[in-house]
Amino acid sequence: MKNGFINDSLIRENLENGKGASKAEIREIIAKSLAKNRLEPEETAKLLQVTDPELLEEMFEGARQLKKDIYGNRIVYFAPLYIGNKCINNCLYCGFRRSNNSIIRQTLSTEELEEQVKILEDKGHKRLILVYGEHPCYGADFIAETMKIVYNTKNGNGEIRRVNINAAPLDVDGYKKLKEAGIGTFQIFQETYHYDTYKLLHPEGDMKSDYEWRLTGLDRAMEAGIDDVGIGALFGLYDWKYEVMGLLYHTIHLEEKYGVGPHTISFPRIEPAIDTDFYDQTKYKVSDEDFKKIVSILRLSVPYTGMILTARENPEVRREVIPLGVSQIDAGSRIGIGGYTKDDYIPDKEQFQLGDMRSLDSIIGEMSDNGFLTSFCTACYRSGRTGEDFMCKAKPGEIQNFCRANAILTFKEYLLDYASDETKVKGEAIIAKELASIEPERRRLIEDKIKLVESGERDVYL
Ligand code: SAM
Ligand code: SF4
């Protein structure tokens, strides 16, 4: 396999041919996307080359509309939990790279892990993504063990109902162990789809220097039966237009081979990290304006794929970009090892620096003010609505029916158990508004379920 489904000359050819599309062509592509069709690479390439402000505004508007049509006002919340920062690789951009002596290496013990989970549960979190460096200590058995600890750690009404993983690619047997342990999504960022840049940033001889092993990492997850997988690129390593094309080709590959595309796409931007020069040196940093294009073009290109915006971004950028197509965000995040105890930055235990350190409650308050419906729903994965099954339901819009109801029910739980008085008021107003827009028979069903939550029942879902 020489780079498999990532064909460098084809991507370049598409990007070249994409230049100079007429207004009519761009409008046709937006219309195709609004009809909920995945775009072809030639079409996405044309959107990537748009510079006309009027057309760009139409693309942003199209992305906003598509998000509303498919996902409604919902935003799903999660938190990252860094388990260990030991690493045998030397990725030039990452604070955890093995040559970085300014980092204090630590792996959470069972007790420390339980403490972090309890703190997160106390804030109201129900979904976590566990994050690991790449190290022989963090093999599949260890990851599965930490997942089990997380699921088994309860605190009053608090429990974690979905554990996602971001770790180095595994072999099929390794993924099977995680499937056994009840994994939600396995996430791998390709970092850059551009082969030569990948080789430059991941020194030869490192585990991570094998571009193909990483590119096929999620194929092996699928073969092991994990059908919710997350792809991503780290923006700032190479030309952003090339990376968007890479993400699209990766999506198409998974769709063609497994009948279902990725569950989520992530588009982190490079951030500064302690004693790491890369951030200041890269010439590919993505401006806020281009970042908006990335998010809206991805939204338009893959209408049914969840899109994750992390707390790497500052509050202003998050406010602007979320309406363009984001379906999941993290909130109240701390990424130093043990960071939830200190509740602050721990630069010498962090991979990079976060841009949004606000609490979960304050972000939910603001998002409610802006008309978004908070969701802690984890029902799909536990009702078997994953992978192809999820997509079949998502496409006719049926998921929106389930998801909105479950968002309301999980938000109600949050408001009763964890919200500040101020956020309670804002949240109840959003729930009332959402209920008012649901047809009466369905609304009554949801209202009955809300009564169960009010009477103390938890984890109520459709
Ligand atoms: N160590 C595993 C690996 O590399 O596959 C697990 C993922 S790593 C802990 C999580 C992700 O953080 C990486 O895939 C990379 O995209 C991102 N990352 C690394 N350095 C970063 C930086 N300086 N700024 C923003 N994101 C960064
Ligand atoms: Fe290690 Fe992952 Fe950081 Fe690379 S990105 S240095 S593999 S933690």
Strand and helix map with partners:
Elements: H1 8-17, H2 23-34, H3 41-48, H4 53-71, E1 74-84, H5 110-123, E2 127-132, H6 140-152, E3 162-166, H7 172-180, E4 183-191, H8 195-201, H9 211-215, H10 217-223, E5 229-233, H11 240-258, E6 264-266, H12 278-281, H13 288-301, E7 306-309, H14 315-321, E8 328-330, H15 339-342, H16 360-369, E9 373-375, H17 379-382, H18 387-394, H19 398-417, H20 421-436, H21 440-454
Parallel strand pairs: 1-2, 1-8, 1-9, 2-3, 3-4, 4-5, 5-6, 6-7, 7-8
Helix pairs in contact: 1-3, 2-4, 3-11, 3-13, 4-13, 6-7, 11-13, 16-20, 19-20, 19-21
The structure holds S-adenosylmethionine (SAM) and iron/sulfur cluster.
S-adenosylmethionine binds at residues 93-94, 131-134, 166-168, 189, 191, 234, 268, 270-271, 273, 312, 351-352.
What's a concise summary of this model?
The chain has helices at residues 8-17, 23-34, 41-48, 53-71, 110-123, 140-152, 172-180, 195-201, 211-215, 217-223, 240-258, 278-281, 288-301, 315-321, 339-342, 360-369, 379-382, 387-394, 398-417, 421-436, 440-454, and strands at residues 74-84, 127-132, 162-166, 183-191, 229-233, 264-266, 306-309, 328-330, 373-375. The chain has 462 residues and is an alpha/beta fold. The protein has three domains: 8-67; 74-379, Aldolase class I (TIM Barrel), CATH 3.20.20; 389-454.
